[in-house]
Amino acid sequence: MKEFTKEELAEFNGENGKKAYVAVEGKVYDVTGNAHWVGGKHHGVVAGQDVTKAIMSSPHGTAVLAKLEQVGTLKG
Question: What's the gap between Cα 52 and its chain centre?
Fold first, then answer.
């Protein structure tokens, strides 16, 4: 699995045909093609960054992560 820096992760924002990745608790997940992440955005949260706080405060919590493919880890 790839180890991403925050700068590398930022490139995967789901815009202009790019893949959409998000980091949660140090793990990077692919949300590309997920119906809830159209254009790399989900309820004001943007792909390409660490979304741990947003996931933890959401009604579904981390339960949705089981349905996503982990593609790497986030450095630091």
Answer: 9
The answer to whether domain 2-74 has CATH 3.30.390.10 is no
For range 27-54, the mean pLDDT: 95
* Strands 27-30 vs 45-46: parallel, antiparallel or unpaired: unpaired
Q: Which residue has the tokens 């119906």?
A: 35
Question: What is the predicted pLDDT for the residue at 76?
Answer: 77
CB-based burial, 2-28: b 16+ in 10 Å, e otherwise? eebeeebbeebbbeeeebbbbbbeebb
pTM of the model: 0.94
Map residue 45 onto helix, strand or coil: strand
Query: What average pLDDT score do residues 28-45 get?
Result: 94
